Amino acid sequence: MEQKILQKDQVGKLYSELSKVYTFYAPIKEKGNIVFKKIENPKDIVLDYLNSKIPPKSVLFPETEVLFEYKLDGKDVEIIDRQDLDDKILIFGIRPCDAYSLELMANFFSFHGNLKDELYLKKKENTTIIGMGCNNPRTTCFCTSVDGNPFKKEDSDIFLTDLGEKYLVEGISDKGKDLIQKLSWLAEAKNADIKKANELAKQAEESITTKMDVKEVTKILESSFQHPVWDEISESCIGCGTCAYLCPTCTCFDVIDETDDYNNKGRRIRIWDTCQSCLYTLEASGHNPRDTKIQRCRNRIMHKFSYYPKNYDLLGCVGCGRCIHLCPVNNDLRVILDKILKVEKKEDEKAIA
Amino acid sequence: MVLKMGVEAENQNIEKSMIETANNLLKNKEVDVIIGYSKGTVPLSSAPIIIRREEDTDKLIWNNLCYVNLAKYLVPLMPQLCDSEGNSLKIGVVSKGCVGRALIHLAVEKQIKLDDIKIIGIPCNGNINRKRIEKEIGESEILELSIVDNNINVKGKDFEQSFPFDEYLNELCKVCKVKSPPNNESLAEVCVGECLEITSVEDDFSDLDEYESKSTEEKWDYIIDTLRTCTRCYACREACPMCYCHLCFVDQNKPIWFGKTTEISEIITFHLTRAMHLAGRCVACGACSSVCPMGIDLNLITRKLEKIVKGRFNFTSGIDIETLAPMTTFKMDDSEEFMLEED
Hints:
The complex is a heterodimer of chains A (353) and B (343).
Chain A: E1 3-7, H1 11-18, E2 23-30, E3 33-38, H2 57-60, E4 64-73, E5 76-81, E6 89-94, H3 96-109, H4 118-125, E7 127-132, E8 158-162, E9 166-171, H5 174-182, E10 187-188, H6 191-207, H7 214-222, H8 229-234, H9 242-245, E11 253-260, E12 265-272, H10 293-312, H11 322-326, H12 333-352
Parallel strand pairs in A: 2-6, 6-7, 7-8
Antiparallel strand pairs in A: 1-9, 1-10, 2-3, 4-5, 4-12, 8-9, 11-12
Helix pairs in contact in A: 7-10, 7-12
Chain B: H1 7-27, E1 33-39, E2 46-51, H2 74-77, E3 91-95, H3 97-108, E4 117-121, H4 130-137, E5 142-148, E6 151-156, E7 160-164, H5 171-174, E8 189-191, H6 209-212, H7 216-227, H8 235-239, H9 264-277, H10 287-291, H11 299-313
Parallel strand pairs in B: 1-3, 3-4, 4-8
Antiparallel strand pairs in B: 1-2, 5-6, 6-7
């Protein structure tokens, strides 16, 4: 069996062994916020957490990322490509919803296989994911409504379950199983451990009480592009980027060229962008097809629950609930989807009348 | 802070009479819509709401978590709120002191017409510092918040913690001198509860004491350390009633004026430039800090600038409807010292 036990005080040992091979990312607490950072000292790792403030997409798709740099020498230009794309990355302690989000992003960044965003995809390919079950989902979590589960293992290479004093370690993918083989010092799991892990998984799943008929939402959205419900949904939105930046599946970015004329060099970077920004679809002509808040709010919901399903046959949401509990004006996604679900009912009532 | 009754009881009284007032205003057609706060769907929150029908007024709430400055909605909303013939609608705004200040200052800057606004004045007893409480609770979900006997009680699945109300208010609320909207003859105002007569303000800047005791180097380190987790989501800007620019300096892209990355120098450039734009305009509502998803305390820099403006020009924003803000006007006897010189 590929089920082992990692004692909590062995995390440091695991780090020192794996950090020789991998760039090791894990959750840490930075100014009161849980974020995934490259670990220098294993004592910084915080595994007893609800979920990170900034989603771990930041490891593979950072807020600011250099695409390439260049140097000028007279008329000669030297392009300096990224040298770190073959580095092996390990993301430790990631929640199942966020592990799934990295898969969804891979989908987006391969554009149906026609085009490939090498930057993301190469890093993703070189990434080993050690996921961790979510014993205490928040009340704002709804992963079970969007193809997820607090103990969904398939998006991780290795999956951990917090059993209190220790972790149950399960190899999921071949990559994960191979890695566990190499960690020969891990103790064998006992049947009682596996049984306890299963119980915790069941409890966690049952504790998620927010249930939403997202399939129905997708269906309704097909025909509600012009519906007045969007006025209501967008009314309190202030148009910031909190929901998008802290969303594990939001992939939009802006590309910027920066020149440093004094030093004869420059770089092309990409930064996170959000469809809530007034610049988002502003065209060079000055025309903006999404000029109003209503259009921008609609786009965010449509993208996740209508366009994504249409284009990839997948939902663009993993149910982490970050946009719910972090929205500055409490424009709750659950309430938004509920309003959309009621659109159809009203239409039905009309039809009957 | 001395309260005649408990905070909770006071809030309930205000809420009840606010709903009554709102109801009457709509019934008597004194206003067409009311902007207020409704109950949040998560603890430590509230949700701004626009009420159009009498029967919806019971959705209005009042408590110490009404942290959004509702004046924010007026600049973009006013041109849209018209009847079928294009006449502007009358808007009632639930206004604690800093919302009232923002409305007055927006009128001074000619962004809104106060003729179309009815201020529903509320004596505020301060906003809870939600970000501080969230940080201190840490990695447990807060499920319930209540105020009992001047204590903020926070409950979760397997914990319960109490915070003294006076200590866990926003720093700005602790030194606030304008708890209800400033009175002015030209303002249409109804007051819920006891609103104070305010015509001038002796500002209390004691919240700056700790910052000012630092050396220049320490101040710089403090600013870097405070801002370094910023993701540049611009929630602070979008929640700020004074940030109404159609295109913010930081969004200028033909050509780009400011760097847009999350590198610390560019984060600082954004926040300091925004703070400069707020000099003499900030109404000390603290909405920027209350909404920051990363829990960054953004008030200190704007407060420091307010103190300088007060010292040089004896001006407090949002009190007087006649006086232009120092940075938008010029007087022969203006102080000529450069505003950022070391005090």
